[in-house]
Amino acid sequence: MSGRPRARRTPLPYGLVLPAAALLLLALGYPLGRQVVLSLQDFGLAQQFGQPPDWVGLDNYTQLVSDPYTWQVVLRTVVFCFVNAGLTFGIGLGIALLMTRMHGIVRVATQVGLLVAWAMPVVAALTVWQFLFDTEYGVVNWLLTRAGGDFDHHSWLLHPLSFYAVATLVVVWMSVPFVVFTLYAGLTQVPEDVLEAAEIDGAGAWQRFVHVVLPAVRPVLLVVGLLQVIWDLRVFTQIYTLQKAGGVTHDTNLLGTYIYALGIKGGHFGTAAAAAMFMLVLTVALTAPYIRMMLRQEED
């Protein structure tokens, strides 16, 4: 009894993938390895001028973990991340759903407006937002004062709570267009015949959304949620610029600006590298549930 001939294995696929894998390993592996080594050293300003660094092992990590301020920054970062990711995701999904109901001209105008907001450079956008919330000449203070509020010369960036409110407004405004475009593309792929069949069977609008639309676009939702958590966890430019515009750095630091303050401003590059590794571990821990759901979705 002769069995089916086995397919002949060829090294060609591995040869095609190997160069790209090697470049990816070099581009990501070397900086990560260098970061790990730096986090285990006492690397300061003297080492910038050629003095050999001292090997301190886990002392940098111990210093970070034993500092209560580090945990304050971590808590702020996690809360800020999930608040911004949740708001961005919710607003983006709502606008994407509205766009599926819009007339062609209105939808195009909405897409153009979102694209302009998305394409605006970060520094230029932050300059506009700083002007809106300026203490002396801000439009927001002027409008709220005219409405009867006591906001004359009010400083939005001086107090941490209002600082994060402004930062959240800026971050969400800059992130929503990506979520809208991505989710709208996914929503347009939901089969119309399935929606019509569900409507004929008596399913209401909410039931069709929960039982038909959401399962159909679930892979897109997971990817967008994963990316949004990563981006909001690593936010830096918006926080740093608002701090320079009047925010109290110590009370408004997130992990990104804290690492910058340790390394570039403080000259403690070893400690900053350890904080960066801590941020990497935190990112992996927060995104692991999304990755597991994505893998489970692929298996299903």
Automatic annotation (TrEMBL):
It is a multi-pass membrane protein. It is found in: Cell membrane. Residues 74-290 form the ABC transmembrane type-1 domain. Keywords: Cell membrane, Membrane, Transmembrane, Transmembrane helix, Transport. Pfam families: BPD_transp_1. The chain crosses the membrane at residues 12-32, 73-100, 112-132, 161-187, 208-231, 269-291. PANTHER family: BLL4140 PROTEIN, DIACETYLCHITOBIOSE UPTAKE SYSTEM PERMEASE PROTEIN DASB. This is Sugar ABC transporter permease. It comes from Nocardioides panacisoli.
